[in-house]
Every structure is written in structure tokens, then in C-alpha cells.
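yo, Lysophospholipase D GDPD3 is done. seq:
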Amino acid sequence: MSSVLYYALPALGSYAVLSIFFLRRPRLLHTPGVPAFCPRLGAHRGGSGERLENTMEAMENAMAQRSDLLELDCQLTRDGVVVVSHDENLSRQSGVNKDVGSLDFEELPLYKEELEVYFSPGHFAHGSDRHMVRLEDVFQRFPRMPVSVEVKEENEKLIHKIASLVRHFDRNEITIWASEKSSIMKKCKAANPEMPLSFTRCRVIRLLLLYYLGLLPFVPIPEKFLLCFLPTIINRTYFPFSCSGLNKLTAVVTKWLIMRKSLIQHLEQRGVQVVFWCLNEESDFEVAYSLGATGVMTDYPTALRRYLDNHRAAAPVS
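structure:
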């Protein structure tokens, strides 16, 4: 036993030193690509705290606040139109208990006159524009605006139509594939491999496992974006579980696992841009940027723009 320890301990020590060395200097092993854009300010659902979510009015408002990224979800209508909609079922958004896929585009109902902001419970958004929009309309209206397109269901027809639209509008480098499920992301990548990928839930777990085992510096990372919730919002503005105790436990565990400056800095140096969602309070903006995140996703682009402008103005001149 002692002879095993005699050789094992120095080997483990050498491995730990090498791992820490390359964690801090990943560019000695990996050459990061040049990002096509830098998403400091992302508008969640187009900025769903200031206008009705996913409407053209919301996106116009986000653009007026110089947003760098629109975060959108897509569904497919019965007649094959890709529409911007968070939900497949229209009950919450429109008060109509029908699925987007059961209606033609022209049959889609208007949004309700007000919608609760999911990540700001008790707050409601209003707007004069209540129409659902086609993804094609978004690409036409904002041709060079980066967009994150999340696909929630394994709908290959939807995935291929999104991929085709991105190619048609020459947006490969500025349109992000996003999905929580690895099985969906695999199909997205196959449909258009030129679009940058974001981490899925399973890939985030793998990322953290590699980080804590010290293997991350030696493993290639194909993703270009980590779009991740900020653990400090759990049980405050984000309630992933119905049980308060489980939410508290999740907040503690994920805060310990994810909120690591060394991890975020390593990813940034390797060309992976980290964007935390969905933050609607200035204290959360501060936490995210202090960790070294590239950007923040918010329902209130005006508030985040004010924060960014104020902190840029207050930054010391070098």
C-alpha cells in the first residue's frame, strides 16, 4: 500500500498542478475563435417586461435600448410557418386552449392585453401590438441582429425550417441554436452545423464534472455559448420546483457548483461566451458581471441598458 501511495501521490500532485496551470492558461492548448458578436445585453422573449413578449413592438423596444441579442422560442403552425412563441399551447398567452400546431398562421389569436412577466412574479407587461410574428419577419426586420432560437420539442420539420431560414437570410454566424435537450441539439446541429451551439442541460452537467475533476483544460468544447440561469435568482424570481424547500436546496447547490470565477474565465478564454438569465434586478446584474460573464439576459432591456451605461461612465479611465 505504501509503495502505491509513493508513486500515486506525486502523480496526483503533478496532475493537479498541470490542471490548474492550463485552467488559467487555456490558450496554450486551445486557440479560441473570434466571436461574431458580444452579447452584453440580451432581451429575453424580446424584452417581455416592457412590452408583450415576442411581439415586434417588444423587439423594436429592445433595439431602441441597443440590445445585442434577442432571445426567442419558436413553434410551427399547421401550415408550416415558423412563429415566435414561447408556448406550444396558447392558453397562457392568448386564453385559447389550442396548440400552435393545430392552427394555420392566419388563425392564430392575439395575445392577451396583459401578460405576467415570468421572472418577475406579480408584474405585468402591456403593449399595443398583440400579434404573433413569423421568424422570417424578425430576420427581415433585423437582418444583422444576433438571435438565440430555442427549440423545445423534437420537431424535425421545425428544426429544418429554422435552419433553412437562417441560411436564406445569411445569418449562420449570428443565430444561436439553443435547447435544453441534447437529443434536440443533435438534430439542430445536423440541420445547420454552421450555426453556433449553446450548452444543453446534459452538456452543462458534463462541463461541471470535467471542471471539478480537473479535466476541462484538456477536453475540446464545441459550444460557443453557455446560456445559464444565475443560481441566486432561485426562490426569488425563479421557482423551478413547486416545493420551496427543494428550491432552497437547488439554490445552494447550484450556487456552489456554477458561480466560479475560474470556470467562467476559463470558458471566456476558450471562446465560450457566458450569458446569465433571466435577471431583472440591478443587484443580479452586478453579480453576473462581477463573475466575469459576457452578458445578461433580461426582461427589462431599459433597466439593463441604464446599468451598463452608468457603470461604463463610472469606470476609471486607464
